[in-house]
Design a protein that fits this description.
By secondary structure, the chain is mainly alpha-helical. The protein has helices spanning about 1-5, 10-30, 45-55, 60-80, 100-110, 115-125, 140-150, 165-170, 175, 180-190, 205-215, 220-235, 255-265, 275-285, 330-345; strands spanning about 35-40, 45, 90, 95, 135, 160-165, 295-300, 325. Helix 12 (about 220-235) packs across helix 13.
Length: about 350
């Protein structure tokens, strides 16, 4: 009964929350089109963050709510930056990587620019980062990022490995969506509990939502079954009153809850009380300025660490390898919640 009561007004509050969240991102966007978030030794991210936020704003439910002009402004900024390079990076100083480039390519698709030269070059860049195992590596070569960091006596096997979270994001692209090599890689990397573990993130909801949505339309029964197991894991993660509670956010993580809501909603057609409760909780958790509490926990493994779960030295008071950083400007979390709410049913 409590879930039903909380969810009863989610339609109206959801629409209002989306409008106020879009307004927050409008105020947060620089006049030249950029957003910046996540303070690290390399500085804040503008290219990766801008590509992600703009790809959300270009999606149908949010573009119509005022997101389209911001996404177009971001596209112009990203297209003019690094004109000599096929890829995009964490920011203008860091070498290009597949994660940032993947979101840039998704933005191009969302805006109808998939046939542009910049988008075609970006997809070729992504193909060059595919490993024989079918996964996408964040960095194809160690030398550029080694020179940037100045770390000459350490392996970059971790950063140059194929990553589940990066692969699942790239798999959202039309050109990669039906690639059997990616499907095989994701199926092999699925955990026994149905989730997918990310490399660059604390919360498995991120990688699981993306992987499940990438696999669900496959004609292969084994692949579809993997997507359904991932979706079921997301459903279990959502609390009876809506939020996903973690050790970092015992009252509820907007970031983790939003990914679970979006990923589960994309795979199930039936109504579920948990999904309505999650949407209602997210709408109620919005702050006065239209944002949500920063809760996107980016982890930066030391470059030689292939399995972040094996590393025990995580810190929040540093900004380099071994650190965990949050989106202190709330831009990444807010865009993530908007993505989930815009796709949640009234």
């Amino acid at each position: 009964p409590m879930v039903v009561a909380v969810a009863a007004g989610v339609g109206t509050s959801k629409s209002l929350a989306v409008a106020e969240g879009v307004a927050f991102l409008r105020r947060s966007q620089a006049p030249d089109g950029w957003w910046a978030d996540f303070d690290t030794l390399a500085g804040a991210s503008d290219e990766w963050v801008t590509a992600f936020v703009a790809s959300v704003l270009a999606s149908p439910g949010i573009a119509a709510a005022g997101g389209l002009p911001m996404a177009q402004r971001a596209w112009r900024a990203l297209s003019r930056r690094r004109w000599w390079s096929a890829g995009r990076g964490y920011n203008g100083s860091v070498p290009a990587d597949a994660d940032s480039t993947g979101w840039f390519a998704l933005l191009a698709e969302g805006l109808g620019h998939g046939g542009s030269l910049a988008a075609r070059r970006a997809r070729r860049f992504l193909h060059s980062h595919m490993r024989p195992g079918g996964g996408i590596a964040t960095y194809a070569l160690a030398r550029p990022i080694r020179l940037f960091t100045g770390l000459r006596r350490i392996s970059f096997d971790g950063w140059c490995d194929q990553h589940t979270c990066v692969t699942a994001a790239v798999a959202q692209l039309a050109e990669f969506r039906d690639d059997p090599r990616i499907h095989s890689f994701l199926c092999e990397r699925q955990r026994n509990d149905g989730a997918w573990g990310p490399y660059w993130w604390i919360d498995a909801e991120y990688a699981t939502a993306l992987a499940a949505t990438a696999l669900v339309n496959s004609t292969n029964e084994r692949v579809r079954a993997a997507a359904e197991r991932g979706s079921d894991w997301l459903a279990v993660r959502i609390g009876s009153d809506g939020p996903i509670r973690t050790s970092w956010y015992p009252s509820g993580s907007p970031f983790a809850t939003a990914w679970a809501l979006w990923g589960r909603r994309a795979l199930v057609a039936r109504e579920e009380p948990g999904l309505k409760a999650a949407a209602a909780w997210l709408a109620s958790a919005q702050r006065a300025d239209g944002s949500w509490e920063p809760s996107a926990l980016l982890r930066i493994p030391p470059p030689d660490i292939v399995d972040p779960g094996s590393f025990a030295g995580w810190r929040t008071d540093t900004k380099g390898g071994g650190s965990i950083r949050v989106d202190q400007q709330a831009v990444f979390t807010t865009a993530t919640v908007l993505r989930a709410l815009a796709n949640a049913r009234d």
